[in-house]
Amino acid sequence: MVTGIVSYGGYVPRYRITPKDIGSVWGVDGESMGRALGVKSKSVPSPDEDTITISVEAARECLKKVDIDPKDIGAIYVGSESHPYAVKPTATVVAEAIGSAPNLTAADFEFACKAGTAAIQTCMGLTLSDMIKYGMAVGSDTSQGAPGDALEFSASAGGAALLIGKKDPVAEINHTVSYTTDTPDFWRREGQQYPSHGGRFTGEPAYFKHVLSCAKLLFEKAGTKPEDYKFAVFHQPNGRFPMRSGKTLGFDETQLDTGMLVTRIGNTYSGAVLLGLCSILDKSSPGDRIFMVGYGSGAGSDGFDITVTSNIKKLKRTRTIEDMIKNAKFLDYATYAKFRGKIRMRGE
Amino acid sequence: MRGVAIIGVGETQFGELWDRSFREIGIEAGLKAIEDARIRAEDIDALYVGNMSGGKFIDQEHVSAVVADYAGLSDSHIPTTRVEGGGACGALALLQAYAAIASGLHDIVVVGGAEKMTDVGDIQAAEILTSTADQEWESIFGATFPALYAIMARRHMYEYGTTREQLAAVAVKNHRHGALNPVAQYQKEITLEQVLGAPMVADPLGVFDCAPLSDGAAAIVLCAREKARKFCDTPIELVASGQASDTIALHDRRDMTTMDATVVAGKRAFHKANLVPDDVDVAEVHDNFTISEIMAIEDLRFFKKGQGGPATEKGETALNAKLSVNTSGGLKARGQPVGATGVAQAIEIVRQLRAEAGKRQVTGAEVGLTHTLGGTGATAVVHIFRRMK
Amino acid sequence: MATPRFWREIPSRYNLLGTRCGSCGTIDFPPRSICPQCGRKSLGKMTKLKLKGKGSVISYTVVHEAPSQFDLMKPYVLAVVQLEEGARLTTQIIDVEPGEVKIGMPVEVTFRRLGQEGEAGVIQYGYKFRPVRD
Count of domains in chain A? Predict the structure, then answer.
């Protein structure tokens, strides 16, 4: 018995800023920083956007492609590390805004950048067991890096929603595996505005250990090799880590390119690997196989082996991820700082 | 129904009156009006007070009782009522007084209008003004009062070719009149360039397209027409009134470039007065924004729809033109303490018809009209006055 | 805005819930219990429906002076939009340069933050409109 992706949708805010413009304010050579990170620009949310609005937009984009009754969605989970409320879930607003309320279960997930993939696995379980007909898994973020910190050059905003179910999926999820340990590579304490990280510790012992271990488990479980896949997408905190992971595992650039959005929109955290998947699905054909491994600091990786079905041709045409990425307006640092609440306003 | 006449008027200076409280300005205007009418406190049968938002500006509801009390009338226990209808409340209070006398309920009534807008900051004052728009479906989305009128202005420009220069001409004219009015908030002329070059508030309306925030009070004494000459040598008759309402939200109006409430209120007033727009010599219309005056002179049928801009530009509404509009300076230059506006407009007409307007006198004025709006046009009140022979 | 007052209107603020008059077919937004055209004839005949969120700009302004909760959005575009179904509403036009907005411009609904009751208060969400970019 298999469950899969019945529909998908993403959202990328319109505004952008370049590493060069960030660097010039902090006395850093932003252009070389950008090259080192593999980031040319990152997305910036408007002051009237947040993880809730991005989740709603992604969920609505997802439902625009298919003709299902929102009331048949039995569960909605939103994974993020920038939920607008510490207490009061993003998922309930999404549920109301897509017309699924009130007969459903909902909750918010947190696991750094892999909160969205964890939500997918939960929806898989609920649909495979027939507890619900459809579940929606959303990963979205409006994360920030501290001003002048390396993370500021890549932390961006965006989100994606996957509708999971057994009925007529456009892509079947053949296998999922996970690799989880207690590894404090990147964290944010309650009440702190910006996250902290372990510098170079975030590489080998964190990102690479979990992504590569999970990927190996996935190859074993699926009985596959890199050549069996048309596309591969990894969590993308910068342009270097996913490419290195991919090549270490035996994938080549043609397989990795389509899902690599970080170069143009930065690291959308919980949205990253899901948006990469959406971008791949926009361009895929029936029979294409997709290898997807996310990563969340703290730390863990969820891996998925996915095959596109002929139902992908039946989806209605809506804005693609490419359309959203191209709809860009560049900001200067001052406007970006204003938008991101880095300037202390009266009364704060 | 018996006729009603105005036998006394009085007002305070309009402007930023930092030293004066709401109670002080209300009483000052009332006392001046009573002296002008040569009546005694005991003669007053009832008090109507126009006040838009004592609650939000000075945290005081029930201002009717406050005004009666501080006017020294608490011992006589007179009936006192506050009237609210957005910016039209002063004109509505006048209408209530008219109805009370015309019906025989009361004989001598004092109408006051007062507002103290400067005790709160100007940003908060602007928000309070916006509370007369649709709170649920306009204000919450960022609709400010100037924004809603700016939306009307842009559509008016789109449909009729009205220009920013024509809007500015309203402000220039009204400041020129205001310079002749000793109680006006602004007594300085301004130029077209100043208006066009002013900072934007809500495109296409700039700072000089918008009436200011003001403190001020105005009061009128009315009595039955047949008794007027007992008190006053130059009583002015309030011949007829028309009042109309419309949708609260601008987006629900039939036609964004026409205030149907003004059209209907005007028609009702002219019909009851047995007069036509051509009979009017002098008019005080509600120019909270320059576009409002242009729409008002069209909607009252002084000029054809779409011709309000060109007419103003050509000087057809200036002092002693065919129709003198806003000789007081209008809300723009005289100021708009909201509750006082409708009463102050009536006082200007009374002065014109009494030939007491000094440098801004309209020669041979016999018939005058006031037009007052509430919200973005959800209420309109038109009063027509005539010199009693 | 007070929490219960805002919460009560969520179906209309999030999902453009309006009403259709069973007597004359006119569509109103927000929902009404009596049709302005039909009066008492319409009582009990008003049915709820979700509007599609597509329309065009009837008129607009660029707001430069605004209450403090809009400080980060200034200058912003406020417009009256006519929806396909005939009803009109007042809304911000976003994801656009103020100079790009034109009367007649086709727009579609999006979901955005409207404001909040202070840093510790409830966040209010609702509709804004953006240009249709194909």
Answer: 1
pLDDT tens digits, C92-112: 999 999 999 999 999 999 999
* Residue among A129, A234, A119, A160 at smallest CA distance from A7: A160
Q: Nearest-CA neighbor of A8 among A277, A310, A262?
A: A277
Domain spans of chain B? 4-121+214-230, 125-211+239-387
Query: Residue A167 belongs to what domain range?
Result: 1-342
Topology given in CATH for the domain delimited by B4-121+214-230 = Peroxisomal Thiolase; Chain A, domain 1 (3.40.47)
Please give the Cα distance from B319 to B333 (Å, whole number).
Answer: 15
Per-domain boundaries in chain C: 52-131
User: Which residues have CB under 8 Å from A106's CB, separation 6+?
Assistant: A75, A76, A77, A89, A91, A92, A94, A95
Return left, alpha or beta for B122; rule: phi > 0 is left, psi -120 to 50 is alpha, else beta: alpha
Percentage of the residues of chain B whose pLDDT score is greater than 90: 93
d(CA B296, CA B294): 5
Closest CA to B233 of B3, B50, B8: B8
Instruction: Name residues of chain B where pLDDT drops below 50.
Output: none
Is residue A195 included in any domain, yes or no? yes
B125-211+239-387 CATH fold: Peroxisomal Thiolase; Chain A, domain 1 (3.40.47)
CB contacts of C79 in chain B (<8 Å) are 151
- A31-50 residues touching C, CB cutoff 8 A: 46-50
Say if residues B169 and B332 touch (Cβ distance below 8 Å).
no
Which among B146, B203, B250 has CB closest to C90? B250
Give per-residue pLDDT as tens, A229-275: 999 999 999 999 999 999 999 999 999 999 999 999 999 999 999 99
Question: Cα B225–B227–B232 angle (5° rounding)?
Answer: 90
Give the nearest partner residue to B201 out of C60, C64, C114, using CB atoms.
C64
Number of neighbouring beta carbons within 10 Å of residue A213:
18
Identify the pLDDT of residue C69.
Answer: 87
Interface check B158 vs C, CB under 8 A: yes
How much is the average pLDDT of C55-79?
94
Bond from prior residue into A205 cis (ω within 30 degrees of 0) = no
For the residues of A170-232, what is the DSSP string, one character each? SEEEEEEEEEEEEE-SEE--TT-SS-EE-GGGGIIIIIIHHHHHHHHHHHHHHT--GGG-SEE
Report the distance separating Cα C115 and Cα A226, nearest Å: 49
pLDDT at A195: 87
Collapsing DSSP to helix, strand or coil, A238 comes out as coil
> What region, left, alpha or beta, does residue A90 occupy, with left being phi > 0 and alpha being psi -120 to 50 degrees?
alpha
Q: Whole-model pTM above 0.80?
A: yes
Cα end-to-end span (Å), chain B: 20
B201 in contact with chain C, both atoms CB, cutoff 8 A: yes
Is there a shared CATH topology between the B4-121+214-230 domain and the B125-211+239-387 domain? yes
Residue of C nearest to A88 (CA): C122
CATH architecture assigned to C52-131: Beta Barrel (2.40)
| Tokens coding A115 | 């909160």
C-alpha to C-alpha distance for B15 and B335, rounded to whole angstroms: 7
